[in-house]
Amino acid sequence: MALIQISDLHKTYHMGDVEVNALCGVSFAIEAGEHMAIMGPSGSGKSTLMNLLGCLDTPTSGAYLLDGEDVSRLDGDRLAAVRNRQIGFVFQQFNLLSKESAVQNVELPLIYAGVPDRRERAMAALERVGLADRAHHRPRELSGGQQQRVAIARALVNSPSIVMADEPTGNLDTKTGLEILQVFDELNDEGITLVMVTHDPRVAERCKRVMRLVDGEVVSDVFNHQEAAVGDLI
Fold it and tell me: How far does the chain reach from its first CA to its final CA, in angstroms?
């Protein structure tokens, strides 16, 4: 069974009397260990899809199986438990607490999960991304690349099976962005499933699979440079 199985997923928002169909019957599967990019123009539905894949939202209709569990109809508390157990997030804006040190930021998911050996695990996560020597520095004392490494360490600290990244190099210069992408490559080599939303074709080129959305529909899905028919994506 695929790690992620999406079937006929729809997401509709109501804005007053206006109905907005953000996703229109999307179906695909993601195997464990894949390195995937989701691309598309503004308004294509890629952020909506990322929110659904990350258990930050639920679909209007359709099914979402995550590691065999149907999470498409879970309530907020149960979705939060799934997120904390299986998914790590990395964002364009880093989303670090400015008054807390790097290691304290990394500890946050462990606090939510009630894990006792927080400091040891947080330090191990920082070591994993090459930033243990900056553990006690606050975000303002770190470069943009270092802040993103802290965010990656925070995403990894609960040992998730999936890391989801939303424009992870969007606020970084080219050299630093390439260094961060190398970190992601290494994580994927270790077996972590990576799903990235990006506008940057240079980011997408490093992924082993690229899915493109337009107007809430999958219009192409490329595996290892081989174009797959949309009907074969499930």
Answer: 11
Please provide the size of the chain in residues: 234
- Residues 27-67: pLDDT tens digits? 999 999 999 999 999 889 999 999 999 999 999 999 999 99
Is the per-residue pLDDT at 223 higher than 90? no
pTM: 0.87
CA distances from 48 to 60, 66, 138, 147, 218 (A): 12, 17, 32, 25, 13
DSSP string for residues in 125-169 = HHHHTT-GGGTT--GGGS-HHHHHHHHHHHHHTT--SEEEEESTT
**Which of the 8 DSSP states describes residue 50?**
H
Name the fold adopted by 35-58+81-228.
Answer: Rossmann fold (3.40.50)
Q: Where are the domains of the chain?
A: 35-58+81-228
pLDDT tens sequence across 5-14: 999 999 999 8
Say whether 1 sits in a helix, a strand or coil. Answer: coil
Give CA angle at 33 (88, 202), nearest 5°: 80
Residue 137's contacts (CB-CB under 8 Å, 6 or more residues apart) are 101, 102
